[in-house]
Design brief:
CATH architecture of the largest domain: 3-Layer(aba) Sandwich
Number of helices: 8
Largest sheet: 5 strands, mixed
CATH topology of the largest domain: D-Maltodextrin-Binding Protein, domain 2
Structural class: alpha/beta
Order of helices and strands: EHHEEEHEHEHEEEHEHEH
CATH superfamily of the largest domain: Periplasmic binding protein-like II
Number of strands: 11
Helix content: 25-40%
Radius of gyration: 19 Å
Amino acid sequence: MRARVLTLTLAGALGTVVAASALAAPKAKIAPPQSISKAGKIVYCSDVSYPPEESYKGTTPQGSDIDIGTDVAKLMGVKAVFKDTVFDSIIPALQTKHCNAIISGMNDTAQRRKQVQFVDYLRVGQSLMVKKGNPEHITKLADLSGRSVSVESGTTNRGFLAAQSSKLVKQGKKAISIKTFPKDTDAAAALKAGKVDAYFGDSPVVV
């Protein structure tokens, strides 16, 4: 599988501020932009349906991205607030100032860089998840021909599956039946419920 970069996604001058925080000493404080300082908080748009990066424990967001976002806020001396945002609309939410930054499992791509700035901090792969015992005998991407696969909408994972499906069709094989869901947890649940043959996502999420 190809590597995947997860990012903290930013608008305008905030990119420089947060990037600098990664180089600061653990107990150092940095001056946030005036609007964040005045509000006393930094608001993140985050798709809180992507464990172990973002998920809810009751009504409290938790996960690796939540920890990172919280520590960045501490460096600024402000509170971290996480606004649950459907992934499909997460960049527009940042652009329309519903949040100050995005922290979510998002690939740093050339197309997205036309809209936002990135601070890359993690590189992972992608994996398939199948039913226990692997009754469909899926061991490689080519085995998805004619199979149904669930994936979160608006993701590069979905785009990758579509590209693989096109390759299979050009080889005279059946296309992949791609089933998209607004939340990644729903895509994973579709496999458990027997609605699809496999689920496709980032490796930490699949694990």
